[in-house]
Amino acid sequence: MSGKEDTAQARVSGPPASLVGRRITLCVSGSIAAYKAAVLARALLHAGAIVQPVMTQAALQFLGRSTLEGLTGRPVRSEMFEGPGEPHVELARWSQLLVLAPATADLMARLAQGRANDLITATALCARCPVALAPAMHPAMWEHPLTQSNAARLRELPGWSLLGPVFGEVASGDEGLGRMLEPEQIAAALPVLLAGSEQSGGSQPAAQLLSGRRLVVTAGPTAEDLDPVRSLTNRSSGKMGFAIAASAARRGAQVTLIAGPVALETPAGVSRIDVRSALEMRSALQQALGEGAALADALVMCAAVADYRPQQPSTAKLKRGTGTLTIELVPNPDLLAELGQARVGQRPFLLGFAVETAAGGELIAAGRAKLVRKKVDAIVANAASDALGTDDTRAVLVTRDAELPLGPGSKQLVADQLTEFLAARLQEG
Ligand SMILES: Cc1cc2nc3c(=O)[nH]c(=O)nc-3n(C[C@H](O)[C@H](O)[C@H](O)COP(=O)(O)O)c2cc1C
């Protein structure tokens, strides 16, 4: 590859750290939204990425190659058959991330079929790095069952993510779901994809990403006492929350970890408050977050808080009897919803977890419903079988505009993906 890495590097100004020095291939296809690829290229360059533009023949009808060449300092690639060598193999090896924005219905159809009839599809087939698509099309095209099944197929591929589309006005003046996610939002979603990729190797030390940020993380189960020796609890191990606290502290954050009853070591550099019940966790949260939650930049609610507690825990050990035993349960407060409803403005950033027995689309829908109901910024939705008590996990990070795959991999890897995501979101202001 002919490189102008230093040109891109020279344009860095206050970048989201995790795109610094990353090699991103920006693939543009033939939508009216192609002009937004120029804005996206700028955002990526400002974030410190090295951007290689690729355009389909149709994209060249919408946006002149000089625009992207001028911005990126690199020649636009659009031909399979130019020069010696195999451009798709070379591009796939070079890329740490492929961003297809805008992605047309036709491009998605070609990709879903595994076709390789142009430089973008051939490169995508060859690439083993994360691939992010930002679809853009008329709502009627997006809603068509064929496009929907192509989108579902692409979403299922490991390492592939769809960012948007979103609801809004499209080129024809019609309104609906089909508008491309705004370039700044696409750029903000990319660090999490890179963090999950083994090929990522950013040049900025991880320690700086959350420097000066204050994070509160809850972890583990709660235990609701029935009597002095018995309790109602759940199978949360606390490993995910502890991994997030450890990852955030390694990235320079000041971390308060509120832990339910677990036997895990406190991660280095983390302040820990131990609690048992949901009500104790609520008090510890009030203490850690302060008046108006002003003491935290972000809250990660990873704890599996009991929905109910015994109405009247017995002060003496309950004795064995011969008949059935009925215990009255009363609902616990929904700690995350309380905070979401009380929040004024955008801080603290609220990240919740949703463990469900559902999977696939149902799991994502449950995560999105929780996000809206609890008025939070992002939800990690995972299947109980993937998450409870395990060392490895996989999940989907549901935000207002996107669904990003997390893992599969160790909880440490997923924690790093989440703290990279938080760092990028907090940097947005
Ligand atoms: C004015 C105009 C606007 C278009 N906008 C879109 C669009 O937003 N999304 C889309 O999927 N196709 C759109 N198309 C159709 C694509 O350009 C067409 O399917 C083309 O073959 C896509 O090629 P590509 O995927 O190789 O870029 C548009 C076509 C025209 C003429």
Describe the protein in words:
- The protein has 429 residues and is α/β, with parallel strands linked by helices.
- It folds into two domains: 5-195, Flavin prenyltransferase-like (Rossmann fold, 3-Layer(aba) Sandwich); 208-314 and 326-427, CoaB-like (Rossmann fold), CATH 3.40.50.
- 36% of the residues lie in helices and 23% in strands.
- The protein is built from 16 helices and 19 strands.
- It has helices at 5-10, 36-46, 57-62, 65-72, 87-94, 105-112, 119-126, 139-143, 145-156, 183-195, 239-250, 278-289, 335-342, 360-374, 384-387, 411-427; strands at 23-28, 50-55, 97-103, 131-135, 160-162, 166-169, 175-179, 214-219, 224-227, 230-232, 254-259, 270-274, 298-301, 308-310, 329-331, 349-356, 378-383, 392-399, 403-410.
- The strands form five sheets. An eight-stranded mixed β-sheet has the order 12-11-8-13-16-17-18-19, with helices on both faces. A five-stranded parallel β-sheet has the order 2-1-3-4-5, with helices on both faces. Strands 6-7 form a two-stranded antiparallel ribbon.
- Strand 9 and strand 10 (230-232) form a beta hairpin.
- Helix 6 packs across helix 9 and helix 11 crosses helix 16.
- It is elongated, with a radius of gyration of 24 Å.
- It starts with a helix and ends with a helix.
- Residues 1-17 and 198-205 have low confidence and may be disordered.
- It binds flavin mononucleotide (FMN).
- The site of flavin mononucleotide has 15 residues, from helix 3 and helix 6.
